[in-house]
Amino acid sequence: MSKESVIRRVTAPQIAARKGGEPIVSLTSYHAHTAAIVEKYADFILVGDSLGMVMHGMENTLGVSIELMIVHGKAVVRGTKRALIVVDMPFGSYEESPEVAFRNAARIMKETQCGAVKLEGGVSMAETIRFLTERGIPVMGHTGLTPQSTHVMGGFKTQGRDEEQWPDLIADAKAVEEAGAFAVVLEGLVEPLARKITGEISIPTIGIGASAACDGQILVLEDMLGLGDWAPKFVKVYGKLGPMIEEAVKTYAEEVKDRSFPGEDQVYR
Ligand code: KIV
Fold first, then answer.
1. Per-residue pLDDT tens for 72-99?
2. Which residue is catalytic, options 39, 120, 177, 187?
């Protein structure tokens, strides 16, 4: 391979260096094909555990296994050349201890060849984030609305509506920063709080339902493409993939039934 043909992937430190600069573009992706399209425009791609819901029909993300994350992580790494690929650590794979988290994060990185992992939690996960980053694993944090804690939080609720919640939410983002994370996802935060956190920490904040005040944005690809019949309220739906797929399948079914498919030119001779 010639030196010129090597395409270097975006790295975690390069994302960290974008703090306060050009907004960081990111999306989730769970297959090789969509990832190849997404990386033309995104700085990093998240293989998020939301795949349990949008790909596998689960009610929440709690049932997602490491094996499932690895299968999709491998597909996304195979389908891309340039974007940083971040793989979520699923529920139960990191909370027990820093050592367990390291073992599972190292497995995810070895098997998928991704460039970083993401895990949920602030102050309570700071020790684990430090343990991983000191051992060569770039970590993206995730605070605010943390879907893996849905049962503790009482559902998917916007955080920070009550200003009394702010000190804890700010402390979470700061703890993640101080522990060595290269960026932090802020999910479901009211705008003034997202703006305050973004102004007070030195790593990029990546918003999802947390306003344009963040250093970058992320959306779940299937939601923004309009693939399902439901998307969270804050999601701007850019496509109509669900109806497009239905129309294509309906036309195909009609053609099969009236024997106009396959046509002459679709038959091997
Ligand atoms: O799993 C996921 O899709 C995520 C995003 C909501 C950031 O963690």
1. 999 999 999 999 999 999 999 999 999 9
2. 187
